[in-house]
Write a structure and sequence with these properties.
This protein is of the alpha/beta class and 276 residues long. The chain has 2 domains: 176 residues, Rossmann fold; 73 residues, Arc Repressor Mutant, subunit A (Orthogonal Bundle). Helix content is 40%, strand content 16%. It is built from 11 helices and 12 strands. The chain has a 5-stranded mixed beta sheet with strand order 2-1-3-4-7, with helices on both faces. A 3-stranded antiparallel beta sheet has the order 10-12-11. A two-stranded antiparallel ribbon has the order 5-6. α5 packs across α7.
């Protein structure tokens, strides 16, 4: 059995579930990129892939994750996966997917490359399903790692083959999104992904940026803990930089020392904005 997940935190919780059910045990492959943001036109071609890497490289500059680009090689991960499936014809794949745009976009990106293996690829989509948290309360997880390991014994019953119809329709849906090539993609329910403009998350940021300087890390913590539709800190810092360039925010500190050394605040209104 090969398990595929789309977030690093999912690996650890799935490994803990293996300890409770040896029948689930198998290799875990993590698809590391976040295909819910950034350019994706011609993503399977060299030009499109390089354009995306260049975009990611620009975002990672001055971040705490400078080595991130070097460890993200999803093309190689898929190459190794297909090689293993060819060498072991009885091997099956479980794709674990929670109800968030990160997982669903990554699923679209991945399964579009697996058509030759119909019947061996199963998906476990935890779509609007209740689970029990550590306090014994019912909740609806948006991420796999929010689920207790013992709850995965229930979740595994959701495994079902990706249908021939899905292998036809889903790649077309992904192709449409690739052609739209928006910077942001969000989940509107089910597997419906909708393209959004680059400023989609700006309103979330501006809700917690005041007229007094605050450290970037503080703004990130407040924003990410409250925003309904989640995205990563690297993307949010990029949006702060874009708002600074546009004159909506003011920054102080040395970006070359990393964003933890930088503080931001809302720019004062111009005379025309403030009234005369």
């Amino acid at each position: 059995m090969i398990h595929i997940v789309f977030e690093e935190a999912n690996v650890a919780v799935l490994q803990k579930a293996f300890e409770l059910d040896e029948q689930m045990q198998g290799d875990i492959i993590e698809i590391k990129d976040d295909y819910a943001v950034g350019p994706i036109r011609n993503i399977y071609e060299t030009e499109g892939y390089q354009q995306r890497r260049d975009w990611c490289k620009a975002l990672l500059e001055n971040s705490p994750y400078l080595d991130q680009l070097d460890i993200v090689d999803d093309k190689m991960a898929v190459h190794n996966l297909l090689k293993k499936l060819d060498e072991q014809p009885n091997e099956k794949v479980w794709i674990w997917m929670a109800q968030n745009q990160h997982d669903v976009c990554s699923y679209y990106w991945l399964m579009s490359q697996l058509k030759d293996y119909q019947g061996r690829i199963e998906v476990l989509y935890l779509n609007n399903l209740p689970f029990i948290n550590e306090k014994g309360q019912i909740f609806y997880p948006q991420h796999l790692h929010e689920i207790q390991p013992k709850e995965f014994l229930k979740a595994k019953k959701l495994a079902r083959p990706i249908t021939p119809s899905e292998f036809e329709v889903d790649p077309d849906e992904w192709k449409k999104l690739c052609n739209e090539n928006a910077i942001i993609r969000i989940l509107e329910g089910g597997k419906k992904i909708v393209s959004k403009e680059a400023d989609f998350y700006d309103k979330d940021l501006l809700m917690y940026i005041t007229t007094d300087f605050q450290k970037v890390n503080k703004v990130l913590h407040q924003t990410q803990s409250k925003m309904k539709i989640k995205t990563g800190d690297v993307f949010l810092v990029w949006r702060m930089n874009e708002l600074i360039k546009a004159g909506n925010l003011v920054a102080e500190g040395d970006w070359n020392k990393g964003w933890k050394e930088v503080a931001v605040k809302k720019a004062p209104p111009t005379p025309s904005e403030g009234g005369e």
